[in-house]
Specification:
- By secondary structure, this protein is of the alpha+beta class.
- The chain folds into 3 domains: 165 residues, no CATH class; 113 residues, no CATH class; 135 residues, 60s Ribosomal Protein L30, Chain: A, CATH 3.30.1330.60.
- It has 17 helices and 5 strands.
- It has a 5-stranded mixed beta sheet.
- Strand 1 and strand 2 form a beta hairpin.
- The radius of gyration is 30 Å and the shape is flat.
- The two termini are 51 Å apart.
Length: 435
């Protein structure tokens, strides 16, 4: 309601200052050519600020008047006529910028979601859906220009979700399509028969990466790590499929893998002694890393099986295991744990008991209802309540557990919808294994 009042008041000022834009006519001594060049520069800057999207009617009127001025100058008509068209364009441009600022303020989340989609290149990779969303945005901003507030406010949240979905689809295409294409080629070449284990690994990496992107679409550092791992496993699958297939045996995957290992050993023996020693050292480090990864994968699978879909979601982020406690609920604006929370937290405690010497961070998150400071305090208090429970119920060696509160700074969904706000109110448990 408060936003509607602000929007209504601002629109009243913008619209009722005059029934139409006031033209500030130029003096007879003004140069039409110079004023036109200045206007064209300002129109380009306005378009960069998305005035053509956020105030489409007024921007179009400004463009039409500019075109009239340009035509008048080209036809060498009286300077007064050209300057009048430039003045008219200036008036509509000024009004367009006012409405652009107004739309950007009141459709902030929609515009931000659109900007993120553009950053992901959605306007090219998901062109049809993006243009469809833009047509809906134009309809909303035209309603704002007409002082039709209810539809603008009501439709904004739905449109934000569309831009978010388009962005996520684009990010997944950017990061997953190559691996999926490689897997598809391998399957066509007989991977199911010739390299079933390598196929399972490649598909699991794609599924894990897909789930990670769903929850962490903007975590660029971890995305790059996932991308390398996923594409490497897909490329390796295709290579092993072809090597195994060349053996003309349905059980030749072992032979291909063994041959690959033997080739690596032969290469390691070549060269100078210092090079060989370094390779052995690197191989040892790699084996240690692989063993750590194997242990972490096993713990990840065990943790994932510990919770049902209503209780928690489990993700792997590099050497960090993330447990999103979907089933952990607090009373409104409160941070006290309730009795029904203990069964879920006991499962978390069981998982933590398998991660000695690991760093554990409890993250609290809220929706955007209320002030920034209040939400940061509430999110921290909820994380701290979970931390205290876990510390008081530790098994074996004491764990390093920290509580942090992010308020509403890291939303998963739109804070304009009840569903999105519910998704944003959450507690995450992050378990980071030592390197």
């Amino acid at each position: 309601m408060k936003n509607q009042v602000i929007l209504l008041f601002t629109l009243f000022i913008v619209i009722n200052c005059s029934s139409g834009p006031v033209y500030q006519e130029y003096p007879d001594t003004a140069s039409p050519t110079e004023e036109l060049a200045s206007l064209e520069r300002d129109m380009r800057e306005a378009k960069k600020s998305q005035a053509d999207i956020l105030s489409p009617h007024n921007y179009a009127e400004a463009q039409d008047a500019l075109d009239d001025a340009r035509e008048s100058i080209e036809d060498q008509k009286p300077a007064k006529k050209s300057l009048h068209s430039i003045a008219k364009s200036r008036a509509y441009l000024k009004r367009s910028l006012n409405f652009t600022s107004l739309s950007r303020t009141n459709l902030y989340e929609v515009v931000s979601a659109r900007d993120q989609a553009i950053k992901a290149n959605a306007h090219n990779l998901e062109k049809n859906d993006f243009e469809k969303a833009d047509r809906e945005l134009l309809s909303i901003t035209r309603d704002i220009e007409k002082n039709q507030l209810n539809s603008a406010i009501k439709d904004g949240a739905k449109l934000q979700e569309k831009y978010l979905e388009i962005e996520l689809t684009t990010i997944k295409k950017n990061n997953l399509d190559k691996s999926r294409e490689l897997i598809e080629v391998a399957e066509k070449e007989g991977a199911k028969d010739h390299a079933p284990r390598s196929l399972a690994i490649a598909k699991k990496n794609v599924a894990d990466f897909d789930a990670f992107l769903t929850a962490n679409r903007h975590n660029e550092n971890e995305i790059r790590r996932y991308l390398i791992t996923t594409e490497n496993s897909a490329n390796h699958l295709l290579k092993i499929t072809r090597d195994a297939k060349a053996g003309n045996s349905l059980t030749s995957e072992d032979m291909a893998l063994k041959f690959e290992d033997e080739q690596g050993l032969v290469a390691a023996k070549q060269g100078q002694l210092d090079q060989s020693q370094q390779k052995i050292k690197n191989l040892s480090t790699q084996n240690t890393t692989l063993e750590k990864e194997r242990v972490l994968n096993a713990r990840y699978e065990a943790a994932r099986k510990e919770f049902n879909s209503d209780e928690a979601e489990v993700y792997k982020q590099g050497n960090t295991l993330a447990i999103r406690l979907k089933g952990l609920e607090f009373p409104v604006s409160q941070s006290e744990l309730r009795g029904e929370n203990y069964a879920l937290l006991a499962k978390v405690q069981k998982v933590l008991s398998e991660f000695d010497r690991s760093k554990i961070v409890i993250e609290g998150h809220t929706d955007s209802v209320g002030g920034k400071e209040a939400n940061e305090t509430l999110s921290f208090n909820r994380a701290e309540a979970v931390r205290k429970y876990l510390v008081s119920n530790q098994r074996g060696q004491p764990l390093d557990i920290e509580a942090v509160g992010h308020g509403y700074q890291k939303p998963l969904g739109s804070n304009r919808t009840a569903e999105g706000r519910a998704q944003n109110r959450r507690v995450d448990v992050l378990i980071t294994s030592p390197n």
